[in-house]
């Protein structure tokens, strides 16, 4: 065969082979490019979020493997920082602006009326009404009007300064400047002084007990608190918070337990710790007079097995007026009240209650509550009070 023939046959074989290879390898139909799958990410078991409902089921099932982490260090909760409260002196001066509403009624109102050129019967009626509205009470109001009438006659024409001096003197006479308003909280040698806090619930009894503890600590005394208001569970917790803040021990009993037993334990603790003062917060429910007498009488008798009750503080809410006064009278008949803590005197126009409560109960107001802040309880100072009412 001619070389040209051989070449032609070889080319033909090559073309045939290439054609059949193309047919074999050609893709069938128009295929889409394969989707690009994201690479699989494996999350370590501990960090996977639990399926919905797994948290609730955790207690009921044992299928959740225990955590593989190292056991955590036990959490140490730092004890609450003990505060150093300010001393009680000068508090009433600091809080005098809180008497603004009583200042408008008793102070400015009376000053304006007494400064009129002619003081006719209508004006004296207005003066009387102002005093009654401020809760001065009927009998003290009549006494005040009588005194003021006499002195105005003596004076004749009056300068504003004279009117102010006249009213200042009269208010101080009615409030009393020579009553013993000191709190009896001196310890007896190794034995602490005991303060019993009584009064209707909601008057601010527990708050006043806590504030008093703060103020005594601020004056450098050591205090033990007795949560003998076992009737209201939250009262003991409330007192605990007050005590914790100033580092005062709080003795409490079971809810609904015997208040006398808590009072006894508190006095025992105060004696053992050589505390200066034990303050006992009582429930003093006004169910019946005999029930109240039994409860408070027992608390007092039990304390007297170990100590003496130096002070029985009656807490009275200044905003409750004559109704509060009637309730206070029941307490005064049941225990020998030695002093009154008049709360919520801030924001009330009824500052005259100081005059009526002292007259009705025959005991001095020793403390006044002038706000919800922890240091808003002040030893009552008649001169600062009257000057705050009359303005400078
Ligand atoms: N504005 C004002 N609020 C006061 C004053 N004293 C107490 N309060 C508030 O009166 C409310 C009642 O006080 P509590 O101390 O819980 O009353 P309580 O008499 O102890 O009540 P019980 O524990 O149920 O006996 C609280 O909101 C106190 O903050 C005060 O002087 N001024």
UniProtKB/TrEMBL annotation:
The keyword Cell membrane applies. NCBIfam families: ftsY. Residues 364-377 form the SRP54-type proteins GTP-binding domain. InterPro entries: AAA+_ATPase (IPR003593), P-loop_NTPase (IPR027417), Signal_recog_particl_SRP54_hlx (IPR013822), SR_rcpt_FtsY (IPR004390), SRP/SRP_N (IPR036225), SRP54_GTPase_dom (IPR000897), SRP54_N_sf (IPR042101). SMART domains: AAA, SRP54, SRP54_N. The chain crosses the membrane at residues 6-25. Its EC number is 3.6.5.4. It is a peripheral membrane protein. Pfam families: SRP54, SRP54_N. SUPFAM superfamilies: Domain of the SRP/SRP receptor G-proteins, P-loop containing nucleoside triphosphate hydrolases. The keyword Nucleotide-binding applies. This is Signal recognition particle receptor FtsY. It is found in: Cell membrane; Cytoplasm. Part of the signal recognition particle protein translocation system, which is composed of SRP and FtsY. Involved in targeting and insertion of nascent membrane proteins into the cytoplasmic membrane. Acts as a receptor for the complex formed by the signal recognition particle (SRP) and the ribosome-nascent chain (RNC). It is an enzyme of class 3 (hydrolase). Keywords: Cell membrane, Cytoplasm, GTP-binding, Hydrolase, Membrane, Nucleotide-binding, Receptor, Transmembrane, Transmembrane helix. Its main location: membrane. HAMAP family: FtsY.
